[in-house]
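Structure tokens please, single chain.
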Amino acid sequence: MIADMMTGGGFIGGAMMGNGMMGGGFSGRSGAYYGSGSKGYKLFRADGCIRCHTINGYGGIMGPNLSHIGSKRSFSWIVTQIVYPSAHFKRGSIVKISGKTYLAIMPNYEHMPKSQVITISKYLKSLK
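Here you go.
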């Protein structure tokens, strides 16, 4: 199914998880509003990702800082992490990333519309 997302195949549509709209603006300190970034960043916020993850100084701290995720992970890795995070990190396990320890509790977004997964993934891949 993940391969289908990257090649244009079918995907289970459904409701977004989380209501996620947090206050605060985006400073534009990076190129995050260029390319697919504007829509991708808005979806990243709307889907609640910003509650746990930080990008360029804004967001939560429960999950890893994603400010430079695009230089560390491939597009397909990011897609998989959004849709099936347990493919990379067993849910409930302790994970060390960039010297920090996290509890792997990211929900899966397998019912997120394919277009949203792709848009968010392109946005995250653009973060260098």
